[in-house]
């Protein structure tokens, strides 16, 4: 079984260095290196007499490649596409006819796909034409990845290369990245939100379950879906997803208890069953059994949170408590550990201003509420076992949470400044 995975941007110098390091480890009788030699070398090879070629073959097979040459071809191809190196790609193709159809990164769990799809991610239009001329067939996959990356002209070019509408355009890619431009071009070229069997659940799972946090873009994409035949459920949570405060107003008029209700995970992810399988799996603080205020914090809907509080929502409203005593946390917990914090800490979001935490504290959120929480990260963020955090305050929740990239340090400082205890 492969034990290594090529990154999206592999480096040939690093691969050569890894082979030399593996050989040194083999000669040094390192236990893990010897185990790799025995598992991945096709012949019985003595560690003391192993040569660089042996280490290269073993390394290649741990990456899932059949040979060192195949691994080198993969890395050179990825580098050439990155550089938009037409001659480099043209030179590689005759050396291995299979390259054009196999995943560039060898591993099949990479969404970057075969060379044409890999090039589409980067908007490498002339490389896409070259690969198509040499028999590449992954037009639909390439179009989807170009749309995901917002490469609208590349999408149109691929559509022209196909010579006819692709059979099953999918909106899932740009839904996941919340690409308004990518969604728009696919809809223009004939993609459908609603097919013969109804709403495309895969697309809705990508949109509602995305780990992106750009509410305005999600709102716009949902409205585009509606313009193309999608009929959203008339629920308070869907109104929140759409960012439509006037619809929430109407729900509140019909249901005076709306601000105290809690919602199951299936209500929070309508038409997206894969997102609702495990109530404890979340991007940060679990959202199952929570109020609209918790849900607003989960999806970074600050304006909706302000509206809820203005309408009398209790900032200390608690999540439901399960039969084992887990739950009961407030929205303040949901701001301390959240997906938005991931992007802030990752360096791809706004500065860590802790806006949501500040809003709740300014509206008299109790910094010392105690609750017990069960939580598991989504697979895309590392997965792992179900963990239990018992009798924690918001400050304790943030300090104990195992995945630090989801924790807002600014929120912790704010809570502590307002009298929060561990």
Brief sketch in words of this structure:
The protein has 23 helices and five strands. By secondary structure, the protein is mostly helical.
Describe the structure.
A 3-stranded mixed β-sheet has the order 3-4-5, covered by helices on one side. Strands 1-2 form a two-stranded antiparallel sheet. The longest helix is centred in the N-terminal third of the chain and has 16 residues, at 12-27. The chain is mostly helical and 422 residues long. The model has no long low-confidence stretch (mean pLDDT 94). A hairpin with a 2-residue loop joins strand 1 and strand 2. The chain has helices at 12-27, 31-40, 52-62, 68-83, 86-92, 115-121, 125-133, 139-148, 152-162, 172-176, 180-188, 201-208, 215-227, 236-242, 245-254, 265-268, 292-298, 302-310, 331-336, 339-346, 355-362, 394-400, 409-417, and strands spanning 194-195, 198-199, 281-282, 371-377, 387-392.
| Class from helix and strand fractions | mainly alpha
| CATH homologous superfamily title of the domain at 236-417 | Ankyrin repeat-containing domain
What amount of the residues lies in strands?
under 5%
Describe the global form: globular
Second rung of CATH, namely the architecture of the domain at 236-417: Alpha Horseshoe
Low-confidence stretches: none
Question: What pattern of helices and strands is seen along the backbone?
Answer: HHHHHHHHHHHEEHHHHHEHHHHHEEHH
Number of strands: 5
Number of helices: 23
Task: Specify the CATH class of the domain at 236-417.
Answer: Mainly Alpha
Compute the CA-based radius of gyration: 25 Å
Spatial order of the strands in the main sheet? 3-4-5
Whole-number mean pLDDT: 94
Largest sheet: 3 strands, mixed
The termini sit apart by 45 Å
Looking at CATH, which topology of the domain at 236-417 would you report? Answer: Serine Threonine Protein Phosphatase 5, Tetratricopeptide repeat
């Amino acid at each position: 079984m492969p034990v290594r995975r090529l990154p999206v941007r592999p480096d040939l110098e690093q691969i050569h260095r890894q082979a030399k390091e593996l050989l040194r480890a083999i000669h040094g009788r390192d236990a893990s290196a010897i185990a790799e030699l025995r598992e991945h070398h096709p012949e019985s090879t003595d560690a003391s007499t192993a040569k660089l070629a042996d280490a290269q073959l073993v390394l290649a097979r741990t990456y899932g490649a059949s040979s060192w040459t195949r691994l080198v071809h993969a890395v050179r191809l990825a580098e050439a596409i990155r550089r938009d190196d037409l001659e480099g790609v043209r030179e590689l193709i005759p050396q291995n006819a299979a390259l054009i159809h196999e995943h560039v990164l060898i591993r099949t769990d990479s969404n970057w796909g075969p060379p044409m799809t890999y090039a589409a991610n980067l908007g490498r239009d002339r490389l896409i034409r070259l690969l198509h001329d040499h028999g590449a067939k992954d037009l639909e996959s390439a179009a989807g990845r170009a749309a995901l990356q917002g490469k609208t002209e590349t999408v149109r070019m691929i559509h022209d290369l196909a010579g006819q509408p692709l059979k099953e355009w999918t909106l899932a890619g740009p839904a996941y990245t919340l690409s308004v431009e990518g969604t728009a071009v696919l809809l223009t070229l004939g993609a459908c939100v609603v097919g013969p069997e109804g709403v495309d659940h895969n697309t809705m799972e990508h949109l509602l379950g995305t780990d992106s946090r750009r509410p305005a873009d999600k709102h716009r994409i949902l409205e585009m879906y509606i313009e193309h035949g999608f009929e959203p459920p008339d629920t308070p949570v869907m109104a929140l997803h759409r960012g439509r405060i006037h619809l929430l107003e109407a729900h509140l008029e019909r249901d005076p208890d709306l601000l105290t209700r809690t919602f199951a995970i299936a209500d929070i992810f309508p038409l997206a069953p894969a997102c609702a399988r495990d109530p404890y799996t979340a991007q940060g603080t679990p959202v199952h059994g929570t109020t609209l205020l918790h849900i607003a914090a989960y999806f970074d809907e600050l304006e909706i949170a302000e509206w809820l509080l203005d309408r009398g929502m209790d900032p200390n409203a608690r999540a439901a408590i399960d039969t084992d005593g887990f739950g009961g946390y407030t929205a303040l917990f949901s701001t301390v550990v959240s997906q938005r914090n991931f992007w802030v800490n990752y360096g791809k979001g706004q500065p860590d201003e802790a806006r949501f935490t500040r809003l709740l504290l300014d509206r008299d959120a109790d910094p010392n509420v105690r609750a017990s929480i069960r939580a598991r990260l989504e697979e895309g963020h590392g997965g792992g076992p179900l963990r239990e955090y018992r009798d924690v305050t918001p400050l304790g929740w943030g300090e104990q949470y195992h995945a630090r990239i989801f924790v807002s340090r600014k929120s912790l400082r704010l809570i502590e400044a307002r009298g929060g205890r561990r």
